[in-house]
Amino acid sequence: MASKILLLTPIISLISSILFHSSKSDNSPMPLFAFSWLNNSGMFVAGDTATIRVIVLGIYESGKYEFPFNPNITVNDKIGNSSYISGVTLDFGGEIKDWEISFTPIMVGSFNVLITDHHFRVLDSSLHFGVTPGRMYPASGILSWQDGVDEFIAGTMAEMLILPKDAFGNNVSSSSEGPILFNFTLFALTTSGLPADVLNVTNKGWNTQGYLSIEFIAATAGSLLLHVEVEKHALEGSPLAFTVNPGYHRACESNNARFD
Fold it and tell me: Mind listing the pLDDT tens digit for each residue in 79-138?
């Protein structure tokens, strides 16, 4: 008999739990939820704060539900913080009319937001947003040689490229960035650490492929390393290795000067 009582105990507990949950839900009808972008704007710059207004339709009674409203945010099939967004925050601490969901878009592109909450039967995919690149983050620019050419004759022009990116690794273009105001510092060293000459450094600005172009005259022969900095920060890929072979350059009308 005792074993039968023990066997019935968990069944009675389960039934009581179901009845309790049911009566709790019956006493507090579920509100409905709608969502919209703050200021009705769904376009952002990478690094901005994107804010979603939470609109409660009906009466939300805090503490009257088995589970509080705690939605999941999914962007392009990735839930929560991801390579698309970061800093997902649910701001439900104040008055219900001020409830907001916020996050930081970090990848350029077009995205869909899915807001879900199983307990309140929320499944909303009505929001979309677009992201453009942030301002150029100079130290994240990627260096390369024009056409992959890294061997030059002393006295001839060398051209290096910078692929500009924002702080989140998105490519920056002339249309999003405009004129470049940063001063890039170039200097060359031999493989043994001795200084090598680079002359007539010229920032040519944007080229048609979306790179920043910088030209200089390679004046010291040898195996060299080109260092590129902005505001004392080395760019990604710096130093660039290159080779300069001895050559001649006409210094004036009557004399030839050798670069070595």
Answer: 999 999 999 999 998 899 999 999 999 999 999 999 999 999 999 999 999 999 998 887
Superfamily of domain 138-259, CATH level 4:
Immunoglobulins (2.60.40.10)
Architecture of domain 30-132: Sandwich (2.60)
From the CB of residue 187, how many other CB atoms can be counted at a distance below 10 Å?
A: 15
Residue spans of alpha helices (H) in 52-151: none
Determine phi and psi for 51, rounding to 5 degrees.
-125, 130
CA distance 183 to 151: 25
- In the chain the first and final C-alpha atoms are separated, in Å, by 105
Q: Phi and psi for 9 in degrees, rounded to 5?
A: -60, -50
3-state SS assignment for residue 131: strand
Q: What does DSSP say about strands 32-37 and 195-196: parallel, antiparallel, or unpaired?
A: unpaired
